[in-house]
Structure formats: C-alpha cells, structure tokens
Amino acid sequence: MGRAFQNRKESMAKTAAAKTKVYSKYGREIYVCAKQGGTDPNGNLSLRGLIERAKKDQVPSHVIEKALDKASGVGGEDYSPARYEGFGPGNCMVIVECLTDNPNRTFGDVRACFNKAKSKLGTPGSVSHMFDHCAILAFAGDDEEAALEALLEADVDVIEIENEEGRITVFAPHTEYAKARQALLDALGETEFEVDEIQFVPQTTTPVEGDDRVLFDKLVDALNDLDDVQNVYHNAELPA
Questions:
Q1: Angle 157-158-162 (CA atoms, 0-180°, nearest 5)?
Q2: Which of 224, 53, 51, 205 is nearest to 127 (CA)?
Q3: Which of 134, 149, 144 is closest to 195 using CA atoms?
Q4: In what order do the strands lie in the sheet containing 160-164?
C-alpha cells in the first residue's frame, strides 16, 4: 500500500504548483466540511485537520476565514460532493472527486476530459471497489509499537502501519480519520503530520507507457484544470 500511495503522491505533485487552484480547492473543502460538522475546529476534528493541512500548504488565512464565514451562512454558494469513476488510457482506473454547485455542468466537463483522452467514464462503483478509501497519517518517529498501541486503545481499526527511514505511516478506514488523528495526538502530544489526508489508494497498479502515457497526462491535466475537481486518483504505474 505504501508504494501505491507514494506513486500517487509523486505523479500528482505538479498539481500543487498552481497556487490559486490549491487555494480554491481548500476553500471549497473547508466550506463543505464546516457546513457538515460545524465551524468550530475544536468540535469538528476533520475541519481542524483540514485547516492545519491548508496552513501547511501556505493557504492564506483570509481564504480559510472566507470559507468558514460562508459555512456560517454569510452568503456564498452551496457545494455538494460528486464522484466519477472511469477507465483511462492503458485501461488504468481513475476516480475523480469534485465539489460542485452544478452537477450537470460538472458531469459534462468531466466526461469531455475523458472523451478527449480516448477514455471512458464508468458507472458508480465500477472501479472504486479496486481502491481502499483510507485515512493516511505519517509523522517522524520510530516507535511503531507505541503508535499502534495508542490507536488500538482508541478502538481505531488500523489497516496497516509502516515504519520506514524514521517515518511512521498509519493507514486506517476513511471513517476513522478523526479518531485516529486524535489518538495519535493524545499519545504523541502536539506533533506535525508529514501526511494528513484521506485518499483512494489502489489495490493494484497498471503500467501506462508510450502513447497511452501521453493520453494519460492529457487526461489528468485536463481534469485538474477544472475548477470543480478536487482530487484525481488512479492506479497507473508511470515510468520515471
């Protein structure tokens, strides 16, 4: 699982280069999270983690505050989550997560991206069953047993825990994110998470090379250019 996660991180790293896009993504995600669980980070642990992640990615305070104000009812749009699944070049599997105020528009935009890359949208569930929907928390340390004990005492259903090169990485079901994060904070004190995310991690990978690689890059770039797209997950194994 760790290798698949790392492949995903490396292949998508260039997305973070467009700062305004990153700010917009965080703004929408914070808005929806606060709308669903409340605007107080102390009472909404998912929101707390999201805000800390946004600050780590250098999202300005005014972007965060604006999103919280909107969630409090001070005007603004009404976004809802949408997820699309399909098959990309080389028959790799792709999941596209969106936050949208117009599902018909978003579906049309995502479908157009797939069509232009000679790819095909599937039905809900057509590929997601081949991914694990995981909370991923990574931090500097080497006491794997202490971390695991803290998680088990908090009744967290741990999928996997890795200890490599002075970094511990915990994988848990996405529904356990807030509980796992709080259990680690309680055990470790205030610590900085190097990775603090919920992702779809592929169970298997598919090599994508040659002409398919060119089309794959075209698909991912087009999807990431859409304002409504928050995340693109895939199981493509890409050559260096």
A1: 175
A2: 205
A3: 134
A4: 160-164, 167-173, 131-140, 195-202
What is the pTM for the complete model shown?
0.80
Model pLDDT for residues 121-167, shown as the tens digit of each residue: 999 999 999 999 999 999 998 888 999 999 999 999 999 999 988 89
Residues in the chain: 240
Percent of the chain scored above 70 by pLDDT?
90
pLDDT class of 49 with cuts at 50, 70, 90? confident
- The 3-state DSSP composition of the chain as helix, strand, coil percent (nearest 5) reads 50, 25, 25
Q: What is the DSSP string of 84-137?
A: EEEE-GGG-EEEEEEEES-HHHHHHHHHHHHHHTT-EE--TTTTGGGEEEEEEE
181-207 core/surface letters (b: 16 or more CB in 10 A; e: else): bebbbebbeeeebeebbbbbbbeebbe
Q: pLDDT (tens digit, 9 = 90+) per residue, 160-198?
A: 999 988 899 999 999 999 899 999 999 888 788 888 888
- Distance between CA atoms of 31 and 76, rounded to whole angstroms? 10
Calpha distance 51→216 (Å, rounded): 31
Dihedrals phi, psi of 201, to nearest 5 degrees: -105, 125
Name the residue type at position 134: C
Helix (H) or strand (E) holding 159: none
Identify the DSSP state of 142: S
